[in-house]
Design goal:
115 residues, 4-stranded antiparallel sheet, 3 helices, 29% helix, globular
Length: 115
């Protein structure tokens, strides 16, 4: 596998003020449970901004290109219900795609590994 076959997705969510954050997570947990069983899924981490708790970031690694992910993963039926429900909690959602180039501490990406 080369670096072009692996994608890192940063999904940034801005929750509406006073949204029920637990309900937002409860809605998306089944999506992540199913998504984590996909053959090209490597890992996913959910982050909450320390300075802005209404900003949530999902960090995902996939063994496929951006184009493949958009064509094959984004439109899967199991995503549609949670995506629709999540919109009730959100001011905005932004997806960014990256290619790993270097890594320290683990070896889960195709980037160059350093000690």
């Amino acid at each position: 596998m080369n670096a072009k076959e692996q994608s890192v997705i940063i999904a940034r969510f801005q929750l509406k003020p006073n949204s029920d954050k637990q309900a937002f997570f409860d809605n998306l947990k089944p999506l992540f449970d199913t998504m984590s069983k996909e053959p090209t899924f490597v890992n996913g981490i959910v982050h909450e901004n320390v300075d802005n708790p209404d900003e949530i970031v999902f960090y995902e690694i996939w063994n496929c290109s951006k184009e493949t992910w958009l064509a094959e993963e984004e439109s899967k039926a199991y995503r549609q219900g949670p995506y629709t429900k999540a919109a009730e909690f959100l001011l905005g959602r932004e997806l960014s795609f990256y290619t790993p180039t270097a890594e320290w501490g683990t070896t889960i990406t195709v980037g160059k590994h350093f000690s």
